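Annotated sample (chain length 74).
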Amino acid sequence: MGALLTLISFLCGIGSLVCFIFVLVKMFQNNETTMGIVCIVTTFLCGIGVLITFILGWVNVGKWRIQQIMMIWT
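Output written by the structure step:
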């Protein structure tokens, strides 16, 4: 049972990482280079970059056309 929960947790983590990277790519494609760099740096320094990316993804969901990816990430 523990192995199954570990596997599910691992797969959810990989899915979250893929969504995070996809939203970061969309930031750079839509001329949000500064925020993209800030999100990457703060992810490695204190871990808050993922939350910033998540919030900015939802704020710009219509503009960047990432409705499906944000629904999956949520």
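Annotation: Helices lie at 2-29, 33-45, 49-59, 61-64, 67-73.
Annotation: The mean pLDDT is 96.
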